[in-house]
Amino acid sequence: MPETRQPVSSPTTPLEDTPGGAGRLPHGFRMDTHSHGEGQLVYAAAGALATTTERGTWVAPANRVTWTPPGFQHAHRFYGETDVRLVVIPVDLCGELAEQPSVFAVSPLLREVLLALTDRPETRPGAYDRLRAVAIDELVEAREQSLHLPEPRDDRLRSVTDRLHADPGHNATLAELGRAVGASERTLSRLFHTELGMSFHRWRTILRIHHGLIHLTGGRSVTETATACGWSNPTSFIEAFTEVVGQTPGRYQAGLRNEIR
Q: Ranges for the HTH araC/xylS-type domain (predicted)?
């Protein structure tokens, strides 16, 4: 993810002091690696966030919500001025949700429930629990849209992915990257499939989509984003973005503008 010179938070922020929190965080804000005894939903009502664990990075634009089960070490980074909403899920309710960090599509109902849980204090006994139960029901039915970018353990493969992270727009072939790190193209191709569960091309495409989401959230045009992320033309970027994210870059940006309150 692109580096910025923004403030770094401590592992605990005021958002995490209550069962439901809301706040606006500046572009580039980070929550350092930490874990929770309970589950946690983090939703960017505007902006985008990336959640990183030892299993890789998940990116959630404003039409997705991140889920982190109890006990997982994780860090967050926020892109654009982010209207972030945090909902804690007690341990006894976590069994209904995924056992690993995930990102889920946000239905119109789920969005309104997440906003209600974090916008206002509880005025009637049990109201918060009832709303939270609706959120869990919606998540159980929601389609997982993880935009997950797994990270390798093998040193040779990690050398390649580190280079791609540093410059996602670089169009080096796998053979060229292999020569730079001292591994054959065949070996690296095998490692991408066995360690990361996808091809080199697919992994780099998702990496570029991660960066594309961040650039679009920050206000860059579709053409500027396509160039910055390594696509030869905007059409190729639009096709890849739509296949991975489920909507065109233009529609995604229009949605961001509509969701800012």
A: 158-255
